[in-house]
Amino acid sequence: MNLHNLQETDVRIQLLNRLKERIIAAKSNVAEALMADLGKPSEEAEVTEIIPVISELRHIVKNLQSWVLPKKVNKSLLHLTADSYILYKPKGNVLILSPWNYPFNLVISPLAYAISAGNRVTIKPSEFTKNTNRVLKQIVSACLPSEICSFVEGDAAVAAELTSQPWDHIFFTGSPAVGKKVMMAAAQNLVPVTLELGGKSPCIVTENADLEKAARRVAWGKFTNCGQTCIAPDYLLVHKNIYDTFLGLLKSELQTLYPQACLGRQDDSGYGRIIHQSHFLRLKELLDEATDKGAKHLLPYFFDADDKFMSPVVLELNQKHDSLRLMEEEIFGPLLPVFSWQNDDDITPFLKRHSKPLAAYIFSRSSKEARFWRNRINTGGFVINDVLSHFAHNNLPFGGNGSSGHGRSHGFFGFREFSIEMAVLESGPGPSGAELVGPPYTDLKRKIINTALKLV
């Protein structure tokens, strides 16, 4: 089998299987690299970075033969005898720009979908995750020919040079600020772009919620990867009637999940680190401003700039704090602002100010209440009684809305994102629709047109 011929679906499947097997064999190396770059515990690395991509690869391999088949479409009035279908073709040469927060997952996942659609790929990983990049290159070079997948490393200047080139598609994961630069550069060559960005993802806890479940899931979803997750709950809106009870449960859950970190002990084997000093200092500035403006702390907080350690921080705020930088920017760290609310109108200003988040969450036992907020929040993903979990669902599209991104990945949607959906029409026997209603316009054709007007 010629493994360079990506036109053949069997070749794509073979390459993806090789990639999957190589990842499984190298998982301890991946985990060690993630620990070195992000202080990520090995169990967390497996759960959030390794297992999801293995699952995706298996899902792609299982379904790719059906995905690539031409998709028949219904006949239309003017094309009753024609065969019409959608054919999925590779876009060509694609560029993947990946971030530092999940540097393994967010390289392998789009790479897998790009290969599944038959593309050749260039990867520009983050310059802040050199250990993970080294392992990634070892894995990929052992599975994929260099003509099919190559790496280019460097800083923002290298990324800017890459995005100025006439690719057939660019897939970018990162901040909205950089996403704008990518899109502007791509526009010069009319290159289609997928943007997976971020935003301030709200989490609403209602008085109908299972509070223990909500506290446990929020504690994990917010503080895994030290809060550096694009779909992490960015701020909490907790109903006034259960506010104190919920915060008590949240405090207890954090002390259970991260017992040493909550005491300022940096040897907590389950808690990660901030990626680099500049991001640490930014988070410290957000924290200091909130503290100076009267924010209450649910837990004592600890930090060590040299070790890039910052313990879980929960800040009790009120509406007068909405002008804090903490509430202007996506936090992307282990700081969790909490507001109380009593009426639906108390929540609306938050949703208007921080519209179109990448994700939104609600905890409620009332399906009516959940549907109410689902219909009011314009978000890429809406999750009821959980957080983050939609990302790992291979049959759901993942992506943003407006300022949180556009385009979709995961499952069939990821395959489609890297494909050209070619419309194909094979004309059948007999006269075409244009011949039936086109010039010269006879009385018969006038009757046909009048009939068509009634039928369409």
From TrEMBL:
Ranges of residues in domain Aldehyde dehydrogenase: 11-419
Active site positions: E196, C230
Domain of life: Bacteria
GO cellular component term, pick one: cytoplasm
GO molecular function annotations of the record: aldehyde dehydrogenase (NAD+) activity
UniProt GO BP: aldehyde metabolic process
Keyword terms: NAD, Oxidoreductase
Coiled-coil spans in chain: none
SUPFAM superfamilies in UniProt: ALDH-like (SSF53720)
Annotated PANTHER family: ALDEHYDE DEHYDROGENASE (PTHR43570), ALDEHYDE DEHYDROGENASE ALDX-RELATED (PTHR43570:SF20)
Family affiliation: Belongs to the aldehyde dehydrogenase family.
Name of the protein in its database record: Aldehyde dehydrogenase
